[in-house]
Amino acid sequence: MSEVSCKMVRFVKVCCLIACFIPLGSVFGQNPADGLDRLQRLFETNPRKAYQELSDFLGQNPPLSLAEQAEATFLEGQLLMEFGLYNEATTKFYEAERLFKMMACTACLANVYNQIGKLYYKTKSLSEALQRHKAALHLYEEEQDIQGMARSKGLIGSMYEKSGDYTQALIYQNDAIKLIRGSGDSTDLSTLFENVGSIYEDLEKYDSAERYFQLAYALNIAMGNKLNMPGNINNLGDTRRKTNRAGESLSYYEEAIRISQELGNNYLERSATVDLGKAYAALGDFEKAYEQLAKARKLSETIFSEEAARQLATQEFHYEIKEKQQKIAHLEGIHVFETRIRWLLMMLILTLLGLGWGLISRQRLKIRATKSTLRKQEELLEINERLIQTEKENINLLEARMAAEVGAQQKALSAQTLHVIEKNEILKEIQSKLKVALEQDPKDQRKKLRNLMKQIDANLGQDSDWESFKHTFENVHQDFLKNLNCRNPALTTGDVKLACLMKMNLSSREIAATLGISMESLRISRYRLRKRLQLSEGRDLQHYLHCL
C-alpha cells in the first residue's frame, strides 16, 4: 500500500473517533406513543397541564415518527382551540391535515376536518364549517365508520339548525340517531336527543321537544352523565314553562340550579336562575321573580369577573405558550443543526472511506497492472531474444551455405577460366606449329593450311563454353550483367566478356590469354569499352565495374 493510502486510512479512523463523541440529543427518552396517549387523557381533565407537558414532551423526545408527529400536532391544535387561540389552532390543524394526508389515514383526516369545522364556526362562517363537516362525513362513509358518521351528521345537523334550516337539521340529526342506535354505543346519543329537542323547541313544537329532552334525561340518568344534566333538566323546565305549566317547571329549574352549583358551573346556574325568574313572573309572583333576577345579576357579575380573570390568565398562558414555542423552536433548531452536522460528518466519513478505498484499490490495480505489464514485457523480451538467436543461427547457416555455394561457383568459374586459357594456349601452340608447317610444306598444301589457320583464327576468339560461363558468373555476381546492359544495351559480346573478366580481378595477361588476343588488342578493347560506357576521362574502369 502506498504512503498516500496509509495516510488516508489513518485520517478516516480519526474522523470515526470524532463522530463517536458528537451529541446525539435525548435519544433515550420515553416511548412517544405512551406519552401521547397519556396527554390525550389529561386533555379531557386538565387542558393547561396537558399543554405544558406536551411542550416538554416535544422538547425532550427524539424525532417522532410521522404518525406520532401528526397526533402530537393535532392534540396541540385542540389544546390551543380550548384556550381560545384560534389562529394558532388553525395553523396546527392545517399541519396535522397535511401529515395525515401523507399517512393516508382517512379516519384521522376526517377527525381533523370535524375539528376544523368547529373552529370555522367560531372564527369564519357556517358555510365553511358545514363544508368541512361534510368532507369528514364523506371520509367516514368511505371507511364505514359508524361512530364517525354519526358524529359528523350530528355536527352537520347543528350547523343547519344554527342557519335556520330546521328540515335539513332534523334529517341529519335523526340519521345520526339511527346510526348510533344501530351501533350499540349510546355514548353520544343523549347529545343527539338534546339537539333534536332544541330544533323542535325552536319550531315551537314543545310536545316533541319535551319527548326528546325526556329521552336525553333518561339516558343521562342511566349513564350517570352528570355534566349534561343541568342543561337537560333546564330544557325540560322550558318546555313546561312555554306550555303554560310554569308551576311544574319550578322544580326542574331548582334541580338544574342545584346540580350546577355542585358542578361549579356558573353559566348553567345563571341560565337556570333566569328561567326560574321567568317562571315566577309567569305565575305572577314578581317578588320571587325579582329575587331570582337579582341572583342572576350577581352570577353575571361573578361570571364577568371570572371571565376577565380567565382572559387575563389566558393572555398570561398565551405568553407562556409563546415562550414554550420559542423554546421548542430553539431546541428544534439545535436538533436540526446537530442532525445536519451529524449527517454531514457521516457523509464526509463515508466519502473519505470511499476515496480511501478507491485510492487503495486503484493503487492495487496499478501495481497489479504494472506487474502484469512487466511480466508480459519479460516474456516478449525472452521471445524476442529467442527469435533473434534463431534468426542469427539461420543467418549464419544461410551465410555459410551461400559462402559454400559462392566458393564452389568461384572454383567452377576459375576452372572454366583456366580451361579457356589452356584451350587458347593449345590453339596458339597449334597455330605456331601450323605456321612452321606452312613454311616447310609444298605449295599445293599451303592453300589448305592457310584455310585451316583462318578457321582457327576465326574461332580463337570464340568461346564454345560461353553460356555455361555466363550462367556460373551470374550466380556469383548477381545483377551485374543486367546493370551493365542497362548502362549501354549496345555492348558487344566481346565487351561483355571483357567486363566479366575485369570484374573477376584477373590480370591483363590472364584476360588477354582468355580472350585469345594480344596485350595491344586488350588495351584497344579496354578503350573501346570505356567509350561505350561513356566514362569520363580519369575515371577508373576497373573501379566502375566493381561498383556495378
TrEMBL record:
Lineage: Bacteria, Pseudomonadati, Bacteroidota, Cytophagia, Cytophagales
Organism: Cyclobacterium xiamenense
Transmembrane feature ranges: 341-360
PROSITE patterns: TPR
Cited InterPro entries: Sig_transdc_resp-reg_C-effctor, TPR-like_helical_dom_sf, TPR_rpt
Positions annotated as TPR repeat: 110-143, 190-223, 270-303
Coiled-coil ranges from the UniProt annotation: 374-401
Assigned keywords, A-Z: Coiled coil, Membrane, TPR repeat, Transmembrane, Transmembrane helix
Pfam families, per database record: TPR_10, TPR_12
Protein name: Tetratricopeptide repeat-containing protein
GO annotation, biological process: regulation of DNA-templated transcription
SUPFAM superfamilies the UniProt entry points to: C-terminal effector domain of the bipartite response regulators (SSF46894), TPR-like (SSF48452)
GO molecular function (one): DNA binding
Signal peptide per UniProt: none
